[in-house]
Specification:
Layout lengths: L2 E4 L5 H10 L4 E7 L6 H5 L7 E8 L14 E5 L4 H8 L5 E3 L19 H9 L3 E5 H6 L4 H19 L3 E4 L11 H10 L4 H6 L4
Parallel strand pairs: 1-2, 2-3, 3-4, 4-5, 5-6, 6-7
Helix pairs in contact: 3-4
Length: 204
């Protein structure tokens, strides 16, 4: 089983077709949270060859509305106030995305990767996973890219220590940005995952 997470822009069928051709069994459509979003209509599309799921993206500004979410998955977009948010809403959050993209500078002797032992413990307690965005890496500038890579490597080690799942997704908005499973697995191994961990990072 394998899954990719994507950001549709009225091109859901295009993304479904790409997911099938690239060998994915499941596809999760991610949208900014809106109580008026018609998720039922989205899931009614022709998807015989791939299982469809939906996710809402929440930020610190609208996280208080997470209890009204009708999506299959709730994703918290990176925030400087992660500990407070997962302490108060952790039982509704499935994933934290782009946790490595904190605007804060790294510390003198280690990286400010968005995670520490306290946050790791809370995430484990609430069964919250990390989801990495391939699109964010590919769009990072020359300064951001090595910074993100170093932070991701550190977070992979912390996730292993606290037994937190790490997921990798294309977060593509078009089929051109999606990648085959083996490409993503190879990237994760390069980032420090064992092959078994890398394969698990693409499963639902």
């Amino acid at each position: 089983m394998s899954i990719d997470f994507v950001f549709p822009n009225e091109n859901e069928q295009e993304l479904i077709d790409a997911a099938v051709s690239l060998g994915y069994d499941s596809l999760c459509f991610c949208y900014p949270y809106s109580k008026n979003h018609n998720l039922t209509a989205i899931l009614a599309q022709d998807s015989k060859q791939v299982k469809l799921l939906t996710a809402f993206i929440f930020t610190e500004k609208n996280i208080s509305k997470i209890s009204s979410s009708k999506a299959d998955i709730n994703i918290l977009s990176t925030s400087s106030n992660i500990r407070f948010l997962i302490e108060n809403y952790g039982n509704r959050i499935g994933y934290i995305s782009s946790i490595e993209a904190s605007s804060k500078s790294d510390f003198l002797h280690h990286r400010n990767s968005g995670m520490n032992h306290i946050i790791g413990s809370i995430m484990k307690e609430n069964n919250i996973s990390i989801i990495l965005s391939l699109n964010s890496l590919l769009s990072a500038d020359n300064k951001q890219f090595p910074l993100y890579i170093g932070r991701i490597k550190q977070n992979i080690k912390l996730a292993r220590k606290y037994k937190i799942k790490v997921q990798l997704a294309s977060f593509a908005s078009s089929h051109y940005q999606m990648r085959p499973k083996h490409d993503l697995i190879a990237l994760l191994i390069t980032l420090g995952m064992h092959p078994k961990e890398a394969k698990a990072a693409l499963t639902p």
